[in-house]
Structure formats: structure tokens, C-alpha cells
Amino acid sequence: MHAHHINDATQPVTFEDCIRFHGHSCPGLAYGYRAATAAMAALGVNRPEDEDLVAICETDACGVDAIQIIAGTTAGKGNLVIHDYGKNAFTFYNRKDGKAVRVTFHRNEVTDAGDFASLRALVFSGKATDVEKAQFHELKDKTTADILHAPADKLLRIEKITMEAPKKALIFTSVICECCGESVADAKTRKVDGKHVCMPCAEGTHIAKKK
């Protein structure tokens, strides 16, 4: 597969980087890659190291991993938001100028076809024959390549939208849970019997042994 480079003075990021991060190549990852590259081009941004660009994903599936790598919108920086509506749709908001785009995809004849879905179900259930496994992987690889190389207008729809700025990630002070003795963000504690305790202790779900 060809390396698709994002032009960034610091470090070009490719689809291969997405594969390394995600663990395998698949159509979902390719959709995320195309969504991020198209949105960044539409918004005129490079891969940011700060939190100016925010990605709002309407799925929690494979594409989200490509978006984290390509757009630099990551869970840890607080500029990745997931609303799992089970939709292959991604919104990107640029805090610098308040512009936003939503990226959706046209129907894919291969992934939406019954053959692909039934083969995938067989493979994931562990009941597929070697021939069926080979058929599935061939279809999957072909579809992934098609998504990567399809002209943007045939593949996706970019809609300029108006939206309010997503909330910024809060910075918390750490305190000690009075039950387990572990450090916890102050805003995430609960008061139980007059003690400030972490949520797992409050809910009785702490996986570590209580001290």
C-alpha cells in the first residue's frame, strides 16, 4: 500500500502510522484517515500539537484511531469526543477561528453488501473455512485500498457547519482517597460517610484490595 503523507513541517504522518497504532489495516481505519485528511484540508490546518482542533466522532469504531494519529486529536489531550451513535460521521472544530466541518460518507457498495457482512460475521465467529477467510481478507484489503484512493467527491461529503465551541478539558487537583489511599482527581471524588472517596470505592467496584 502506498504511503499517504500529510504535509507537516515537523513530522509527516501516513496511513502506515495509523496501521501501526491500530494493529491492522481495515476499511474503518481508511474511512477515519480520509475523514481527517479531508477535514484538515477544508479547515486549512496541519496536525496540531495543541488542542485547537477538536474531533467529535459519532462512532467508537476503527476510524477513531486514524483520526487520533492524523489529526492529533487524542483522548489524552481532551480534544477527542465520542458520541457513539453508530454512524460513520466525524466533525472537526478549529478553536482558532471557530470553523467546523462534518464529514460523512456515501454508501459503499462492497461493505454494505450482504456478502461482505456475512463473511465478516463468519470470520469473527471462528466458523469460517480457510477459503472464506481468504475471500474476506481479499475483499477487506480491496475495499480499504478503494477507500484510500477514491476521489473525494465520490467517497465523502464535507459540510461546513456552525456549532458552539466544545468544552475544554478541565485540569484537576489530585487528592488522596480516604478509603483506598490512591491519588484521585478532586472533581471525581464522592462524599461517603463524611469521607472523600474515589468513585470505585464509593461504588464498591475497586479492583485493588482496600487498605
How far the N terminus sits from the C terminus, by CA atoms, comes to: 53 Å
Portion of residues in helices?
A: 25-40%
Mean pLDDT: 89
Count of distinct structural domains:
2
What is the beta-strand fraction? Answer: 15-25%
CATH secondary-structure class of the largest domain: Alpha Beta
Q: What is the β-strand count?
A: 9
Per the principal axes of the C-alpha atoms, what is the gross shape?
A: globular
- Largest sheet features: 5 strands, mixed
Uncertain spans: none
Oligomer: single chain
Give the helices and strands, then pairings.
Layout: H1 15-22, H2 27-43, E1 53-57, H3 63-71, E2 80-82, E3 90-94, E4 99-105, H4 114-125, H5 130-149, H6 152-155, E5 156-161, E6 174-176, E7 183-185, E8 189-192, E9 195-198, H7 199-203
Parallel strand pairs: 1-2
Antiparallel strand pairs: 1-3, 3-4, 4-5, 6-7, 8-9
Helix pairs in contact: 1-3, 2-3, 2-5, 4-5
